[in-house]
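Annotators were shown the component list below and the corresponding predicted structure, then asked to write short factual statements about the assembly.
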Amino acid sequence: MASVSMESVSKNFGTHKVIQDVNLAIKDGEFVVFVGPSGCGKSTLLRIVAGLISASSGTVRIGGDDVTDVPAAKRGVAFVFQSYALYPHMTVARNIGFALETMGIKRDAIARKVETVARMLKVDHLLQRRPRELSGGQRQRVAIGRALVRQPDIFLFDEPLSNLDADLRMEMRMEIARLHEDLRTTMIYVTHDQSEAMTLADRIVVLNHGRVEQIGTPSELYHRPDNRFVAGFIGSPRMNFLPVKAGADDRGEGVLGPGGLWLPRVANLAAPAEIGVRPEALRILPAGTGRFDCVLERVEDLGHEHFAYCRIAGGPIWVIRLAASPEQSLIGKAVALSFEDHSIFFFAADGERIAVPSDKTDARRAIR
Amino acid sequence: MSARLARRDHRAAWFFLLPVIAAMLVVAVWPLGRTFFFAFTDAYLDDPSVYTMVGLANFLEVFNDPSWWLAVRNTLVFTVISVSIETVLGLAIALLINDAIPGRGLARAAILVPWAIPVVVATKIWEWMLNDQFGVINKVLIELGLIDHGVAWTASGSLIMGVVIFIDVWMTTPFMVLLILAGLQMLSHEIFEAAAVDGIPAWKRFWSITLPMLRPAIGVAVLFRSLDALRMFDLSYVLAGSNEKVMTVSIYARDRLISFQELGVGSAASTWVFLLVALVAIILIGALRLDKAAGH
Amino acid sequence: MMADLTLSRPLRRSSAHYRMRRRAFRALQVCALGLVLVYTLFPYYWAFVSSTKQGAALYRSVLLPALDFTYYRQLIDNPVFMGSLLNSAYVAVSTTCLSLIIGISAAYALGRIDFPQRRAVLMVILMISIFPQVVVLSGMFELINWLGLFNRPSALVLTYLLSTVPFTTWILTTFIREFPRELEEAAIVDGCSHLRILMKILLPLMGPSLASTGILAFILAWNEFLFALTFTLTDENRTVPVAIGLIAGTNRYEYPFGQIMAASVTVTLPLIAVVLIFQRRIVAGLTAGAVKG
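Structure shown to annotators:
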């Protein structure tokens, strides 16, 4: 059983609070991604799971057992480092099989296992080389092979693809996904790239400044973000935001925003401070015929899609994703933006999302 | 860079090297050459201008002198044992200080103290501590019941070499610690994390990862220390003067030169010392190069 | 896939068990560290304690200093000792200054200018630093006499260059290499001469390096014994190490250990203070030379 759970885990380096009161539970066989901006503590959290860093307070469990003080060597986890951390003075073969030497396995059995793993990761022709003779992608495979050969209960990946080129990254991403399908072992993966998180994860843990912002499936995080941070972090290009406030104009009581925006206000709910709409949910209409007006400043043509940039009332810029380019004559002129009701996200002043009754609030598991 | 600019640079380089070249010619090359020259003469210190060439006679005289070979033996024994102990002890202390335990900052500072003290002073202090009647070491050993009366450490023939080695270890282990510590701190932290997670026990991490990766640093440290130890003079001289039991080759050569005033023979002995150190240096550097080529 | 034998899991005990094990190991390490501290510092402490005991008290092994500073007063009244302090200071400071100047000049050439014989020159300098001092004694004797410097401290200023110059050159070369190329490139484009680059650009930045190297060279010169013993004959020209080394009683049984201990403490206290204050710099200098070389 390789479930992982953390209860009220915190970590301080001196007075600096790197991890603050994290609670999470990972099921056996799940692929969970820790994602967040640089410095959010995701690598530290991963190392706490591995036992390389000790928690300042709280409990870590693997398979239900309390492993908080158990050293890394005894936890039965495997770790793949961002910098690969291969032993420079050993051959690839010895690098992969080194951990097996301590397990009392015979040398030919070790050689067989190493061969199998190397063949699987397509590095079998490199077994007698040293790490410094390998390319980045090959070193990464060796690092994964070193983890694989131990048949661990849990795989931990610390931004393994950050140092690779873009196409290599995509190829390795598929390999890791396939690995998970084959092995069905619990995997925890750390990345700052939210698209990696969205494509690989069963569930995602979004971290910010050492706190868990939200835990959920990619779909949940995309469609029902708990707060402004998650809403702005997940999705590329990022969600557009606009400051609003409760008020009234000639259309009645409601929520007012720049560019002439007026939204009906739902009674008994907190006053929103911001709204958010994703770029793909917007349409460009002639000025005055949409929700609010803005100036179309620039259009970028990527071939298969277009990005339009509109500045609202001389302030914030909104990005609109379109399949077809808007009329060239509109550039530099006023236009209107339109969107469906269900595409609007309301956020309170403290960043929490305000759930509107039309929301389906069932699937928000509180794994906090 | 154009050839003309490069030539201008090269000329500038030699210009900056003039002081050091001049200095080395005066204090190193010239005296060395003169020593080699005098080795072939029968001159005496009181009047070096009177001499005749005697070919290899001086070299043979030294070669046939049992005192010389005793000195060689002493020097080699001292070097091998001293450097071995210092390396092991230095490694142990460096590993200890490398770990983040309370007091390591204090230890790192304290370790410099024995190194900073002049050899003469350190020798005198230990001489006092080992004094057979009043030395604190003997007092403690008697208290602990290990001996029943004070041991005359420096008077006993068989023990005095041990004393010399002991004092040398005390004085120069810090140097080894510093070099090895620097080497340790250059090792990538993540490699040890990888080994830890993979379940490799601490002793195997040390033996299969730390030690092989430290080989270059330890090699350099051993090289420097060995060459230093071969030239040792101060310690033996201050402790025991010209006592044959701990006489090093440097003391032998100087004695011949200064005490016996034999410029010729003394120079020959110095030349032998030079050849000995050069030989060991070549062997050790060769071993280091081979090691570097093989291990990397 | 990996259908063969399942690996035996590493034995895992309770979390509490490991917590205790780690605490015990930590305690052991701290003890070991304590032992190291005692081993390194006790002799010096004992020297201090001994130097403050008077007469018969010297021969009892009380661990605390008696705080009787008679021996120190005797030292101050001892002209040979005080003279040797001055001599050592003069020699060490002069040698250090000279070798720093010579060294930085050489270091600029060896560290910042790429010329074909660079490696060879470095090798030769390294080899000179391996010289046994004995081997230049004969020649040096002749030279010192010829210059009329025999039995004068200035003789030592010259002879010490043999040890200090290769040392300062090597370490300063390693230090000077650390600076990025861009520093000079702007100056070169402006047409600066090498001398200007050294004096106006690199030298101001090398304060710490010069300090470290200078301290190490000073310690080297201060502690030197062989040349000092050989080239100074009379009491008033001696340096400190020789003066201490030759303190002898009238006979073997009257070794003035108290005085010797007082002298030892006096001589080394400033050294130790300097070393402790500048320890980072010193370690940087020592390891720079060895590790990167």
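Statements collected:
1. Chain B touches chain A at residues 188, 190-191, 193-201, 204, 208-209, 212-213, 295-296 (CB under 8 Å).
2. Residues 65-295 of chain B form a domain with the MetI-like fold fold (CATH 1.10.3720.10).
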